[in-house]
Amino acid sequence: MTFYVTPYPYRMARRWAMQAYCEADRDFTLAVDIRDEDEAFVLSALVPGLKASDLNIQILDDVVTIEGEFKQDENEYLMRELPHGSFSRSLRLPAPVDAEKAEAKITDGVLTLRLPKTESARPKTIKVAAK
After folding, report:
1. Above pLDDT 70, what percent of the chain?
2. Distance between CA atoms of 11 and 51, rounded to whole angstroms?
3. Confidence (pTM)
4. What would be the CATH architecture of the domain defined by 28-121?
């Protein structure tokens, strides 16, 4: 058996007390993955139990904002780790996107947002003529 000794024995107790105090009104932070493809940015986020009508997605130039809320029930829990409460996440992308052509879908609890780049932000290929 291994015992770990910390220099401040009450540090963990203080941390647990702060987490319990702050957890009641803590908002959930939406974790995302973003891929940069040639034509578009592809954003993925886990949103278990949410429907398309539960999400609000806004796009302005190069900023994408995703808002929503995980419904809370009035049950008592011994342990609660699943997300609950409202969330809002704003992300600034490296290039402007075309909001008119953006597509969003939810499949098996995963939000996939395809954000096409504007024409000026797409990579251009220039051929060099040899003489």
Report:
1. 76
2. 41
3. 0.68
4. Sandwich (2.60)
